[in-house]
Amino acid sequence: MANQIILETERLMLRKLTNADLDALFRLYRDPVIREHFPEGVLDREETKAELDWIIKVYYGEYGYGLWATIYKPTGAFIGRCGLLPWVIDERQEVEVAYLLDQAYWGQGLASEAAQAIVAYGFDVLNFNRLICLPIPENVASMRVAEKMGMQLEREIVLDGTPAMLYSIEKS
What we know:
Layout: E1 5-8, E2 12-16, H1 22-29, H2 45-63, E3 67-72, E4 77-89, E5 92-101, H3 110-124, E6 130-133, H4 140-148, E7 152-159, E8 162-170
Antiparallel strand pairs: 1-2, 2-3, 3-4, 4-5, 6-8, 7-8
Helix pairs in contact: 1-2
């Protein structure tokens, strides 16, 4: 498993998701509070399995990055999935810093800790020149995380029929 670790922070370890993570991921994806700001809402077990398969086959297989299991190091608990997602927006290839954590871990700076480490990984390891974040307008907490990453609001967009705030940061 150690070779599957992508990055570590003071309190978090991010590693590749595996099929063994299905139950933990489903526990988060079926929670209406956690999924409140996701346009597709809660997911059932089959939808969660389909997303997990997509992450493993397409994101890891074709892009070499994706969403990663987010483990709380003090307890070893699976507390979310954070990582990088490819998008095409206005005919431009973009990479989003994405984060989703269990409610019990909100308000502790963990999303910002993960996101800042993901930005550094994206710039330093994957050599991206630009990263984005796409919170929906109602998700104030997610916008705060984007700002703590050093991102600036560019504009509001509509992505797959859903309004989103496009934040970005350029590699310095």
